[in-house]
Amino acid sequence: MNTKELLRSHTSVRKYTGEEISKETVIDLIETAQMAASSHFVQAYSVIWVTDEEKKTKLGELSKNEFQFKTAGASFLFCVDFKRLQVAGQKHGVDISADTAENVLVGVADVALFAQNFVIAAESMGYGICYIGGARTNPKEISELFNLPEYVFPLFAMTIGTPTKRNETKPRLPVAAVLHENGYDVDKYDTLLDEYDGIMEDYYSSRSSNQKTATWTKQMADYLVEQNRPHMKEFLASQGFTWK
């Protein structure tokens, strides 16, 4: 398929055939991912390729996603990384300011762009992937497991492999809900979100597995009414990011 069709076909995969992915393929995917844009070319990312079975199992437990790690062809931990930049500064007698809100945002954006390049390259080869934000559920323990130093923190994990099946693509918000012209229009949301709720309710009730009765707005309300992972602020500070 062409690039646009590939992008439109993305679904998360949580069960794989178990076929291993070679080191050559992993390096090829990383090299491709590295060509993503990077703010000021800081390249504030590192990736832990988890090949140790005990550590892989532990990562699955700590991220509350044990099942998919068992069949994945390869497993990774994607990290925001300013340690390498600290070393670069030290070479020139400079103590860098990594712990600002701006640099945290730069690092998160760098990792996200890098990872998405990785995903697109992997899917173009027929693999499936799943982002695992659950790596932020126990970030301290995961950092200790992989010896992450100061100025490095896990943003998400990822599994990749040959899917056992292809899931249906999940309908996204209508373009009109995300595209604003010459200014932000909040008034359109009431009608557009009602329409989208109907689409998602039909999707959830008719998909081939894990059928349920749900709407998007209800799911978002239930999810965002609580403070999710409130420990992250304290954890980031412990890694040297104090949000100056």
Can you give a write-up of this model?
By secondary structure, the chain is of the alpha+beta class. Helices cover 45% and strands 11% of the residues. It has eleven helices and four strands, in the order H-H-E-H-H-E-H-H-E-H-E-H-H-H-H. It has a four-stranded antiparallel beta sheet, with helices on both faces. Helix 2 (23-33) packs across helix 6 and helix 3 (53-62) runs antiparallel to helix 7. It is globular and about 60 Å long.
Based on the model shown, name its key terms.
four-stranded antiparallel β-sheet; 244 residues; FMN; alpha+beta
The average pLDDT is 95
What proportion of the residues is helical, as a percent range? 40-55%
Q: Distance between the terminal alpha carbons, to the nearest Å?
A: 46 Å
The proportion of strand residues reads 5-15%
Tally of separate helices: 11
The poorly predicted ranges are: none
Q: What's the story with the biggest beta sheet?
A: 4 strands, antiparallel
Q: Compute the CA-based radius of gyration.
A: 20 Å
Per the principal axes of the C-alpha atoms, what is the gross shape? Answer: globular
Q: Element order, helices and strands? A: HHEHHEHHEHEHHHH
Total count of strands: 4
Structural class call reads: alpha+beta
Walk across the major sheet and give the strand order: 1-2-4-3
Keywords: Flavoprotein, FMN, NADP, Oxidoreductase
Protein name: Nitroreductase A
Family: Belongs to the flavin oxidoreductase frp family.
Domain Nitroreductase: 8-161
